[in-house]
Amino acid sequence: MSQIRGTANYHLGSDQRVFSSSAHAAASSDPSPLETIRQQTSKIEDLLDTYAEPIKPHLPTIGRFLIVVTFLEDALRIMTQWSDQLQYLHEYRKIPTGITHLFLLFNVIAMVSCSALVIIRKYSEYAVGGLLAVVVTQALGYGLIFDLNFFLRNLSVMGGLLMVLSDSLNRRRFAFAGLPQIDERDRKMYFQLAGRVLLIFLFIGFVFSGEWSISRILVSIVGLVACVMVVVGFKAKWSATLLVVILSVFNVLINNFWTLHPAHPHRDFAKYDFFQILSIVGGLVLLANMGPGTISVDEKKKVY
Fold first, then answer.
1. DSSP code string of 184-239
2. Does the pTM exceed 0.85?
3. Structure confidence at residue 12 (pLDDT)
């Protein structure tokens, strides 16, 4: 508004011109904190775009592969530990023998086939639906639905899958029985919003678990600020890139399963966590590539 008043007051007298010019100069020289952050992050985004230009065409493929890599690793683990998986489900989960075989077979087939479809960008709606079904059935089958860390991690994995769905939407319409049709633009908008919100739950679990230290507090503060920026869609590309860096460093330092002996009891857990975080990193890579979508501060500022 200060700029509008300044231009409207030209040629209306020297005093008014001086007042308008000084007010305009004051407004320009004293930007709001939000505008300052926006300017600085814009410069960082420009640098990221410059250095990422050679790999930018490949980012969707990289993001998709990272998202499904946890499902591929899980399918391989089930096949190589088939008897142990059957024993656990039968003896500890009290699932009848025949159903345990069907449960594991369904998981392996669904994870391998749906992951392949996600990577090659074919029938993404059905592939994402199949992988979401795997997440739910595993939570119920292995009795992990009430484990908070497992729950938060899998919410983030779901967020990554929704980013895949948003990235895959095309111009054709489809509708579910009894529901009004939603066109491609609306579906993409809502899937991007849901994906952004779900992606940050892993970091929330990281903040409230483990022992506290000065470095952990600093990383948690920076990460939480980036998470809020991702959720509201303010400089989402920059904040998603920051989270990719934080989670990648954390993953290598904490979940370094390759340093553990094959017989170590925590090796499988560290390996599982490592690939799950890779999946969430993949979702953030897609977010950084696509942008936050229509329901975001970044888009609203273009309108106003």
1. HHHHHHHHHHHHHHHHTHHHHHHHTSS---HHHHHHHHHHHHHHHHHHHTSSHHHH
2. no
3. 44
DSSP letter for each residue of 254-296:
H--GGGS-TT-TTHHHHHHHHHHHHHHHHHHHHHHHH-S-SSS
Distances in whole angstroms, Cα of residue 95 to Cα of each of 82, 91, 148: 15, 8, 23
Please list, in sequence order, all residues whose beta carbon lies within 8 angstroms of the beta carbon of residue 290, skipping any fewer than 6 positions away.
163, 166, 167, 192
CA distance 200 to 179: 30
Q: Which amino acid is at 140?
A: L
Joined together, the tokens standing for residue 245 give: 């860096």
The residues, any chain, with a CB within 8 Å of residue 196's CB and separated by 6 or more, are: 159, 230, 231, 233, 236, 287, 292, 293, 296
Return the residue matching tokens 């948690």.
220
pLDDT of 49-70, one tens digit each? 676 667 777 788 888 999 899 9
Q: 173 burial class (0-12, 13-18, 19+ CB within 10 angstroms)? A: exposed
Specify whether the CB–CB gap between 137 and 104 falls below 8 A.
Answer: no
Q: Residue 131's closest CA among 148, 119, 146, 144?
A: 119
Could you tell me which of 240, 224, 236 has the C-alpha nearest to residue 284? 240
Supply 267's token pair.
């090796």
Under a CB-based contact definition with an 8 Å cutoff, are residues 276 and 153 in contact? yes
CA distance 40 to 239: 12
| Segment 151-193, tens digit of pLDDT | 888 888 888 888 888 877 644 444 444 444 455 566 677 777 8
Q: What residue has token string 């975080």?
A: 277
Number of residues written out for the chain? 304
Residue type, 4: I
3-state secondary structure 24-37: HHHHHHCCCHHHHH
